Structures are given as C-alpha cells and as structure tokens.
C-alpha cells in the first residue's frame, strides 16, 4: 500500500491530480475487521474530536466496528467537561483487547515522538496530524501530515465533507470545539481551511454545550498550582519562567503558560513542573513565526522529548531523581538553555511578584 503523497488539494508530487486522501484512507481499511483510534498522551479536544470524526466516517462508509481510546489522563477541566458533556466513550490504551485484523489510526500525534504509549507491535495503518514534530513514518502505509493547518479536526472535517457524510450535532460540537481550542491563542495559528471548517460546523453544533465546556468548573488544585507558579515566576527580558514543584496533573503546566503569556511585558512564557517522575514543560509565544516547537526541542535536546507548533509547544524529561537538589539543578540548566536559545543575556531574573509584596498579601 503506497503512502499518501498528495498535498492538501490532492495534487501528487508529480504534479498530476490524485485520488482524494479520504478515498485512499478508506480504501486501505477495507480489509480491516476493526479500526482502533489512538492519540497522544493526555488527549486534548483536537485529538478527541478527530478520533470521534474518523470513527464516524469509518462506520458510515465501511460499516466496520471502531474503538476510540484514551492514552493517559484527561485532567484539564475543559477536557474532562468535553468528555462528560458529549458522553464520549473512551477505552484506556492499556485495556484494549487487541485482535487479529485490527487496524490502528493515530491522530494528532506521530509514532516514536514520546507522546504516546501505544504498544510497539500495534498494527499502525495511518497517521493523520497537523504537527511538524518529526515522527517515524517510514513503515506507515497511509500518512496525512498538514503542518499548515491549525487543527487535525480541520483535516477530519474535510474528509467527512469529501465523503458526503452526515455530521450529527454531537460530532459537529466536538469538531468545532477541537478547532477552536487549537486556534485560541493570539496570533491565531490557522489558515483558510480552518476558518472554512469553523463556518461549516458552526450551524451544526450545540452552542450551549460548547459554552458549558468552555466554562468548566475548576478544582481547588488549579488555584494552588497557579499560586505556586506566580510565587516562583521570574522575568528575563521578554521571557517569564514559572516552576511548580508538584503538578497536580500534567496538563496544568499548559494552563499556567496560557495564563502567563497574557502578561503585557513578555513575548515568551515557560512553565516546568514535576509530575511523578517527569518534568513537564510547556511553552507559549505571543508573536508570529516564533518556532516554539523548534525552540523547545533545541532546549530539551537529548534530555527528553519535545515538540509543538509555531507558538505553542510541550515536552517532558524523565527524572533520574526527584530530590529537590536534582530538580533545582535541572531547572537551572533548562533556564540557561532557554536564555541562550532566545538570545537573552544570562542575568539574574526579577520576580513577577516581589517577595515582600507577596508576603504582605498572604498576611492580609
């Protein structure tokens, strides 16, 4: 089975018009007995919506059973709300009863990038993604990687439209929210295809459910984590770095930088936090052409795994020791690397909230 080599408009590398990728995707699944959908660890709305959309496509056009999985925790409040409000049925990857004839479709991620725990011998048929994170795609029969797109849900919406599939309200809501969350930052990481998908899905989606998901109730741990991040935040020129000694959930590092990047004196926000035996890293940038994914990969190097988009990135480093001294040493090295990568003088940072003022606030 040949790998897909067409561009987003269906033109092959030789310049001739090729078969639509959605046709090729479905064609390669005709002999499968079941299609299992997987994504990256801590799946987000884009990956959840993408898996739901492709499962609907396979069921509608091929009549085959499907299975949507969850790799790791879903801890961010909005993401948990999405699963609950839309009543999504997810199977833990480790609980999948693998069968002969299974075909695996990976969405919003790529093999061997350190962002999933899929068994090495899983029968991987397809990878559909919008990240430019380099993955091991050599032995994957079908690939569709569109780094120019803001969301994988945009690609999936195009597949559904190409195949003239009906899109029920629940699915439209999931796809719309998945695209919205990927383009929520400023400047937006989107192209005309993303906007076209939003316009198409909007009248089909349940806006009340989206509002309910957006305004999910926050647990006490969210505020404890944010307070610790504020107390530990230092500013270096146009960069703010926050450290959290004990992350309640891995996704809360992203919640911290989503908040910090709105500070009007910085263009970069970084959060590092310890979750179990890993240091979780999250990065946000406030300008276009920031190459956040490349920057974080450069900083992390061989210490761990990293990747992302132009203005958003994430990564992790497995800790050999969680002793405070070992974590402090790693944080110091990462800070030095960030300053070097962003060409900022390696000088002492200044606190976001002065210690004296912070103590007075705590006592008041």
TrEMBL record:
It comes from the Bacteria. Pfam families: DHH. Residues 35-179 form the DDH domain. InterPro entries: DDH_dom (IPR001667), DHH_sf (IPR038763), Oligoribo/pAp-PDE_c-di-AMP_PDE (IPR051319). SUPFAM superfamilies: DHH phosphoesterases. This is Putative manganese-dependent inorganic pyrophosphatase. It comes from Urbifossiella limnaea. The lineage of its organism: Bacteria, Pseudomonadati, Planctomycetota, Planctomycetia, Gemmatales.
